[in-house]
Protein 1
Amino acid sequence: MEWQLSLRWRLMLTYVLLIVVGFGGLALLAGQQISKGVMDDFQNYLNVEALLVASALHESVEGIHEYGAGENEVVLALMALSAQTDAHLTLLDKEGDAWLDSSGNVPPGDFSQMPEVQAAKSNQVIHELRNNEQEIPTLYTAASVTDNNQILAIVRLSVPAAGIRNEIMRRWLTLASGVGVMSVLSLLASLWLSSSLTRPLSELRESALKVAAGDLSQRLHETRTDEIGQVASAFNYMADEVQSMLNEQRAFASNASHELRTPLTTIALRTELLLDAPLDESESR
């Protein structure tokens, strides 16, 4: 029993290690790729949104520069676009100073040296992840509002990184759930496989012990065609041969006893006669 349990647990340990290393490694690699893909997709989406917002603001910003239109129209447009994109919008002048804001309150500070603003001045769109004034991780991007290749203003978008991190976490949980289900199924399959390998060995051991104790009627079921089935077939062949040899020995002993019984009986009778009857010397000879 100790050997059987030892073999079973060695098999189980091997399966568990394969599952942990295989599924765990694949899940980690897939999770990293998913996280990178989600982040890249969101950043690309944010860059495209910046360009669309800049295009949507072109007419109203141009009206202020060329016709002296009021800023209320731009503020309303910023608020509407902010609601559509779920982003905080800040409109900067061409120098990078805060001009208008979707919240209605122009934030203080100099934005001209921000990487996304510097890129927008060169008609490029990049994204930047850093903490905002409240030390909250935030994604930033910016795009220029142009007219005839002249920069009229720069619109900056900012989105808290918590949303994208929550999405990444949700993807990780989905992946972990899938790996967990596959691991459980694999463990069940390994339990079945180890049991299918060790149960016939246990039956072979019990049958061998009974044969050793004198029960030569023990036979194993030959229902398998693999190596274990071949071992069962060899065991049955061995038991048949042993039983055949013992039968031959019993037959030989019976025949020998029968063949020796008559002469031995004659010898015994004559010996008794010699010992008991008063015979002369010639009759004794």
Note: The chain has six helices and five strands.
Protein 2
Amino acid sequence: TAGATGFVEQAAEALGGVDILVANAGGPPPGTFATTDLGAYLPALELNLMSTVAMCRAAVPAMVDQGWGRVVAITSITVRQPAASLILSNTARAGVTGFLKTLATEVAPHGVTVNSVQPGLHATDRLSRLHGGDLSTAGATVPVGHVGDPDDFGAAVAFLCSEPAGFITGSALAIDGGAFPGLQ
């Protein structure tokens, strides 16, 4: 968490403040309940939950003071539909989602929006590692027929950070090519 807080403090010093915070952390190692040691949970929570909490604690008070700010955290579609082989990620990112929803309602009256985006399968190094380098098989499971383009994902995040997105807060946006089977 010290690194996350330091990152925000350095950015604020270099830029004169932080108006927009996009929190993103890599995923913890894959595993199931049976294969994941109890000792692996705390590092996963530090990586995915506590780093976001720490960055928000460092950045959001100034946003509240100035009456404007944007927080977007990148979590995962597994918050809605946990993946059997990603128990650490499922657990930690669900915690991030609960934290963000709570924070959103607290800071909304001050012009600060807080949202999360939940990527499904996108062409990333992590997905390539999880699928043995063959993204075509991963894309076959997505209703649009292919994995997502990271640039398109970035454009959705950029919109949530924009002025026109000022009435969107406390939302968790699935960006998954229609893969999530629920009603949202």
Note: The radius of gyration is 17 Å.
Protein 3
Amino acid sequence: MIDSSENRILAGAFQLFLEYSYEKVSTSLLEEKIGLTRGAIFYYAKNKNQLFRDVINKYVLEKQDVKNKMSSVNIERVTLFEFLNTYIDCAQKNINSMRSLVNDESKAYGAYFRLLYQAQLNYEGFSELITQKFEEERSLLDQVVKYAIERGEIKQELNPAEVARHIRYIFIGNSFEESLKVGFKIEEARSLILSYYNLIK
């Protein structure tokens, strides 16, 4: 169980790593942002790299874990339409939780993508871990699509793996493109995904 001090440290460090590159987040910046001494901060993480890894674990890898995101869904019974809406609702929930941690919402999503690149450079094994999360999510979506085909919810001639990839790429592509402009618009992503769903019904 993470105590309130550790949550405070991780939240403050997350804000700094979103705003600055890994290299520019100094101990003095951490002390100022979190409001604790370096001794208190590094009681929970032995050094900056460990703190960065803890931030990535909590705010990236846990958030991208499909078992966490879709824990309320019965895969064998849910329709593809219900799954897609639940998936987008979960994304909205994650976005809302991040909003409380950023000063400028319009820049938050671009900063989040930059954080992923920072993790590739400064978190050994991150690429493999995030790829595994993405593959687990794609595999789950693939299974939901298979059930949707079997039940006649969508066209019988569809390839489940291709449909799963299309849905993920629509969501990820839209979120990345919008992050470079004014921030991610979740309802726009929902509209695009459901438009695709209507095409394959």
Note: The CA atoms of residues 18 and 114 lie 8 Å apart.
Protein 4
Amino acid sequence: TAVMTASPDPQPFAQAAPMALPDSYVFEAKTRDVAAFLTETETMALLVLKDGKMRHEHYAPWGGPDTHWISMSVAKSFVSAAIGIAVDEGLIASIEQPITDYVPELGVAGSAYAGVRIKDILQMSSGAGWNEDYSDPESDIARLGGALATGGSLNAFAATLTRARPPGSYNLYNSTDTQALGMLLVAATGRTIADYMQEKLWHPLGMENDGMWIVDGEGMEMAFGGLNAT
């Protein structure tokens, strides 16, 4: 993992008088047990805030307020926010530019990303052929996970995707689109994702604890889902 250190100016939620969860709730005209629902859904953490103040915290027995959880695709929103900051700082001139202006290795012959606008990739309309079926062991997302698990390169994997549609014509959820944006962020800033995000997001947001990015065998962050936080 690559670590983003806790903010030197942490901003914890203000606390107010604790409140208890109700014992039951009504759904589809049936009264149901709240504790059973939290168990059945394997709810890791439940926080209740009112007027910006913490009123209730509930954690699964195997977790707690200091446990790091993998964010999965919530990480995608952190990456797109960091791209926006890089645009604001002039490190990326325009999202109308092709990503290959910054990441030429995605411009190899036959690559789905050759000449594709950054905007289209941000909107997951890159045109890349992709199957994100987690139940299919032959899917593209399974191949991507395999590349990570065996110590391979996420960057090299991104360059293997081929075009299925004209860019900007169709929105298709594609985790590798965000990995390509991670490559863009590194190329445009000259810094790792963790290093840039620590300065521009993690510390300014007042994060109380370290955050950790899963990295591949070459030290590249798993941009599409590898952010771990409390």
Note: The mean pLDDT is 96.
